[in-house]
Design brief:
The complex is a heterodimer.
Chain A: H1 16-38, H2 53-59, E1 68-70, H3 76-81, H4 86-93, H5 127-141, E2 147-152, H6 159-170, E3 175-181, E4 184-185, E5 188-189, H7 190-193, E6 209-214, H8 218-233, E7 239-244, H9 262-271, H10 274-284, H11 290-312
Parallel strand pairs in A: 1-2, 2-3, 3-7, 6-7
Antiparallel strand pairs in A: 4-5
Helix pairs in contact in A: 1-2, 1-10, 1-11, 2-8, 4-11, 5-6
Chain B: E1 3-5, H1 6-20, E2 24-28, H2 44-52, E3 53-55, H3 60-72, E4 76-83, H4 91-98, H5 101-104, E5 114-119, H6 134-138, E6 144-146, H7 151-163, E7 168-173, E8 180-182, E9 196-199, E10 204-208, H8 212-225, E11 230-234, E12 237-239, H9 243-253, E13 256-263, H10 268-278, E14 290-294, H11 303-308, H12 313-325
Parallel strand pairs in B: 2-3, 2-4, 4-5, 5-7, 6-7, 10-11, 10-13, 13-14
Antiparallel strand pairs in B: 1-8, 6-12, 9-11
Helix pairs in contact in B: 1-7, 3-4, 8-12
Classes of the chains: A alpha/beta, B alpha/beta.
Chain lengths: 332, 329
């Protein structure tokens, strides 16, 4: 074993006001794409992360621009938190050539390598080894980059999870595995799918640290991720973080929510909404006034409505674009 | 020119590529001190260290996935999959990830990885260690598929594969590892997508892939004694496929046999045959196309059964007789 003891410096303290704005951006982005979908203006599918904004902002939002994220099908929050251009994300959702992926990716594959977003994945668990590979690149090239790999609770039952964590551990790769345990893998509750209380306990099998936190507490998330990132940056290897959270909406647009009670949803939405929790704290501590927050929310809605209006007149891909980018041209 | 084995040619290409480019590294099961499942990486860890020649756990999905992640972020991984049959365990990373990323991200990411693997039968290793599944990969847009049949091609094509900016599947054949060929001692590349006429002839073309190329050449020698002049075309790369060289040969000979070691059903021979059938040359053929391939069975372990599961020189000679006997309409 080549584990090093690493003296982690003080965790990065997140700016709560800026974080709240980011969390609202994520929620409003998703509310607007849902409206577009319901109005028949948006083609395809989407997996909303409403209710999980704290894990997005407390995780990807505290990384350096040069750090990387690897995301999942429930990716909009991660992408926005890592700094992916929101206009380009709207454009991608609406199938425009100006989209992040020029219309070839859609909701599930939004990527922006310029801001460290290595992309989102339609295959559950596929990101674990890819993140290890990017971390290996950083280690071999001697950069200080760290990879934050998002995955859902269901993904921890994929073989790729176990293979990648073991490999990341033996090579002490600078990667943080971040499980957003939103309680359900599509319709299956995690309680029915695993026989352990904490998914983070699985870290023990691979000789890495495992931590379970309240994923709807922005400060707890950012502090834990920040510590794990700095540990990884300083050669301390990977960490497995499990953040307990909840998706307010269904798995995807086809979900009729037959598998969970209205009472359960209401409990999470009314008592454990990460945005309401942060707002209450900021207002209680006199950091921000309720009116200022509502003004901010209104401003974001207006800004995004303008973005959508302008994206609508962007051009769509040409038929010729169908056949481009199948292969990269040229040699090394 | 000096003669070295197919295996040595691969080892030499890896050695040269590691020396040429800092971004190149090798990873796979037992590739270090052990030298790889078949010896292709022998001595390289000693020379380049454990960082650049990395032993991995038995985790094919992780080996492939790590290669994808590293390739996307500036490295040029060359992974070894000990037996090509194990591709089944790494399939998501190769098919859904490596092959798709460049397109899904509209060209903003590249995945320059090489997957080297030992394929084919003839060692008595039975159904899970003897398959020729290259046709699977040839069906996936985004992957390039290479199948060298001799030492010279193996070295030049492996160099090209490592320099290529795409995911490349590099199928080596276990029985070819010990075959000798003339190979330059300097690095060189053979363009991916260029078929090779391994022997020129007038009466008949055999399009043969991988291990079948040598068998086709042997059959051609025997046929020559009977006065039949056989041309042997080796596509060398299944994707991209050099249809021009194949069709030019058939236009000249007007008779064709297509032979692969992989099972005939839904195999790559069907692809080549269809390309011929769809071309205007099909109107000029003097005999129906004959297709030879493996029997539609999992590979048996017993020697005689195994030999009968794939085309042999005798079956090729029977096919030659059949094609030559067809009367011109």
């Amino acid at each position: 074993m080549n584990k090093k003891m690493v003296n982690v410096q003080q965790a990065k303290v997140i700016d709560k006001r800026q974080a709240l704005r980011k969390m609202w951006e994520i929620r409003i982005f998703e509310e607007m794409i849902q409206e577009l979908f319901d109005a028949g203006e948006l083609y395809g599918t989407m997996h909303l992360c409403i209710g999980q904004e704290a894990t997005a902002v407390g995780g990807a939002g505290i990384l350096k621009k040069s750090d990387w994220i690897v995301s999942t099908h429930r990716n909009h929050g991660h992408c926005i938190a890592k700094g992916t251009d929101i206009r380009s994300m709207f454009a991608e959702m609406l199938g425009k050539k100006t989209g992040t992926n020029e219309g070839k990716g859609g909701s599930m594959h939004i990527a922006d390598l310029n801001v460290g977003n290595l992309g989102s994945n339609g295959i559950v668990g596929a990101g674990f080894p890819i993140a290890a590979g990017a971390a290996l690149s950083a280690q071999m090239q001697g950069t200080d980059q760290v990879v934050l790999c998002y995955a859902g609770d269901g993904a921890t039952n994929e073989g790729s999870f176990h293979e990648a964590l073991n490999l990341a551990s033996i090579w002490q790769l600078p990667v943080v595995y971040f499980i957003e345990n939103n309680q359900y893998g599509m319709s299956s509750s995690i309680e029915q799918m695993v026989n352990i209380d904490k998914l983070s306990d699985r870290a023990k099998s691979y000789g890495i640290e495992g931590i379970t936190i309240d994923g709807n507490d922005l400060v707890a998330v950012s502090k834990t991720v920040s510590q794990a990132v700095e540990k990884a940056r300083n050669g301390g290897g990977p960490t497995l973080i499990e953040a307990l959270t909840y998706r307010h909406k269904g798995h995807s647009k086809s979900d009729k929510l037959m598998y969970r009670s209205e009472e359960e949803c209401r409990q999470w939405q009314e008592n454990n909404d990460p945005i309401i929790r942060l707002e209450s704290e900021l207002i209680k501590n006199g950091v921000q006034q309720e009116a200022d927050i509502r003004q901010m929310e209104f401003t974001i809605r207006k800004e995004f409505a303008d973005l959508v209006a302008s994206v609508k007149s962007d051009s769509e891909p040409e038929i010729e674009d169908l056949l481009t980018h199948v292969y990269a041209e040229g040699e090394a | 020119m000096r003669m070295i084995t197919y295996l040595q040619a691969i080892n030499e290409a890896l050695d040269e590529a590691l020396a040429q480019d800092e971004r190149v590294f090798l990873l796979g099961e037992d590739i270090g001190v052990y030298g790889g499942g078949f010896g292709a990486t022998h001595g390289l860890q000693e020379k380049y260290g454990r960082q650049r020649v990395r032993d991995t756990p038995i985790s094919e999905s992780a080996i492939a996935g790590v290669s994808v992640g590293a390739a996307m972020t500036g490295m040029r991984p060359v992974m070894e999959l000990q037996f090509s049959d194990f591709i089944t365990v790494a399939m998501d990373q190769l098919v859904n990830q490596a092959a798709k990323i460049h397109y899904m991200y509209s060209g903003k990411a590249k995945v320059p990885l090489v997957m080297r693997t030992a394929a084919g039968s003839g060692t008595g290793a039975a159904a899970q260690h003897s398959q020729s599944l290259e046709n699977w990969m040839a069906h996936i847009p985004g992957l390039k598929v290479i199948q060298p049949s001799n030492a010279y091609d193996a070295k030049g094509l492996l160099h090209a594969a490592i320099k290529d900016d795409n995911p490349v599947m590099f199928y080596e054949h276990k029985l070819l590892y010990k075959t000798l060929g003339e190979v330059p001692d300097k690095p060189y590349t053979i363009p991916i997508g260029l078929a090779d006429v391994k022997r020129t002839g007038k009466n008949l073309t055999i399009v043969a892939t991988g291990s079948m190329v040598n068998k086709a050449l042997e059959a051609a020698e025997i046929a020559q004694e009977k006065g039949i002049s056989v041309e042997v075309v080796d596509p060398r790369t299944l994707v991209p496929l050099d249809t021009k060289t194949i069709l030019t040969s058939i236009e000249k000979t007007k008779r064709v046999i297509v032979v692969t070691e992989a099972v005939k059903n839904s195999g790559f021979s069907a692809e080549i045959t269809s390309i011929i059938a769809e071309s205007k040359i099909s109107m000029k053929l003097k005999a129906p196309i004959v297709r030879l391939g493996g029997a539609f069975v999992p590979m048996p372990a017993q020697k005689m059964l195994e030999a009968h599961a794939t085309p042999q020189v005798e079956s090729l000679l029977d096919a030659v007789t059949q094609v030559m006997a067809e009367i011109e309409v």
